[in-house]
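Renewal narrative, Specific Aim 1. Our central claim is that a sequence can be written position by position from structural information alone. The example that follows is taken directly from our test logs and has not been curated for this report. It begins with the structure tokens describing the chain, in the order in which they were read.
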């Protein structure tokens, strides 16, 4: 019996998501400690202390199922974002929400549209359903931001089959963004037979006046879904909690395919507290901006190219096949992210860490590149 032949069409051709290498795995392989992981855009400061305290107090109720409706977290999000509770869908990470969108709206008869170099989860959720993936070429630098989403190219691929359009703003792994005018103009021309998912996983980190908060468009565009997460700036990647904001009608459909208890009880309480800790978020953002400019400057000094980034990571061009550089960095105890699977074989994505982690990375990079 060949299980492959029994698998659903779309699943047969799937390649699994490639995560950043876990610290424990490298420890086992090399027998070393003090590893610096800058591979998954995690917050080097960790979560808010208030979130940790909330988790601690929730531990004695682990025998209970979580609140499947996520009442407290939805209320906190609704108040903070000035949206209705019925517009929010909670997910086991925003990844979960992206999958809910695919399950609720895609089928073998329809297609999803996204850009070259876009976040890897979009092709996975699309193919798993058996829907067609339409991939628009990214900007090549002749106009628009090199490696960034080319909205004209995307618009030209929209047809009657297009049911979901995924846009990461800013995008991972490129760090590129679409400004208010560009994204607003695109939303205006998308027919109402297609949903637009604007994935704002790095929203909190963005420090750019012309960056649009897509929530402001929800009333104008009923086909818009905005996704955000507690994994990045809020430092709760390990707990898996994210959310979508949409029209109540879309949220109702997502809720139909959602697992009844998709967000665990520790994640629910931690996220509520994380939201209320503006100080911790501020520290996180400041540390990131400082680290990001330091890394950009360091790349400039070394004559290495990079893609200007609005996120908590910098994608650098090592000017050669990045795979051996990645491997050599591992042996130095530094984990970064190779992104050949994103069509960027000469690039490495480096998460902005603490000052000392960033310095460790730079020193290792210098040794590896012989600089
Ligand atoms: C990290 C990331 C996510 C999702 O992360 P979750 O941990 O599942 O919330 C979504 N989109 C982009 C672009 C990301 O980089």
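The sequence written for that structure reads:
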């Amino acid at each position: 019996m060949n299980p492959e032949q029994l698998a659903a069409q779309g699943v047969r051709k799937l390649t699994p998501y490639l995560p950043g290498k876990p610290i424990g795995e490298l420890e086992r392989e090399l027998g070393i400690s003090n590893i610096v992981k800058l591979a998954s855009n995690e917050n080097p400061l960790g979560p808010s202390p208030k979130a940790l305290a909330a988790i601690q107090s929730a531990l004695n109720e682990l025998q209970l199922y979580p609140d499947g409706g996520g009442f407290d977290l939805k209320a906190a999000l609704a108040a903070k974002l000035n949206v209705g509770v019925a517009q929010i869908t909670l997910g086991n990470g925003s990844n979960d929400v992206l999958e809910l969108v695919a399950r609720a709206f895609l089928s073998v008869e329809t297609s999803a549209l996204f850009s070259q170099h876009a976040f890897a989860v979009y092709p996975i959720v699309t193919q798993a359903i058996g829907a067609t993936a339409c991939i628009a070429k990214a900007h090549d630098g002749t106009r628009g931001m090199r490696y960034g989403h080319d909205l004209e190219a995307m618009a030209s691929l929209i047809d009657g089959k297009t049911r979901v359009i995924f846009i990461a703003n800013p995008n991972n792994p490129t760090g590129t963004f679409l400004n208010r005018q560009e994204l607003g103009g695109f939303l205006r021309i998308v027919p109402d037979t297609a949903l637009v998912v604007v994935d704002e996983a790095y929203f909190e980190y963005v420090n750019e006046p012309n960056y649009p908060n897509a929530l402001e468009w929800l009333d104008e565009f009923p086909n818009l879904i905005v996704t955000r997460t507690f994994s990045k700036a809020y430092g709760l990647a390990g707990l898996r909690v994210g959310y979508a904001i949409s029209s109540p009608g879309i949220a109702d459909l997502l809720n139909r395919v959602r697992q009844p208890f998709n967000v665990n009880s520790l994640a629910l309480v931690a996220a509520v507290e994380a939201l209320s800790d503006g100080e911790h978020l501020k520290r996180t953002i400041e540390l990131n901006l400082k680290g990001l400019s330091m890394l950009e400057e360091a790349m400039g000094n070394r004559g290495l190219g990079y893609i200007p980034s609005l996120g908590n990571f910098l994608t650098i061009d090592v000017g050669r096949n990045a795979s051996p550089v990645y491997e050599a960095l591992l042996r130095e105890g530094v984990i970064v992210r190779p992104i050949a699977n994103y069509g960027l074989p000469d690039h490495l994505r480096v998460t902005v860490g603490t000052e000392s982690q960033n310095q460790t990375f730079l020193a290792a990079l210098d040794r590896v590149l012989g600089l």
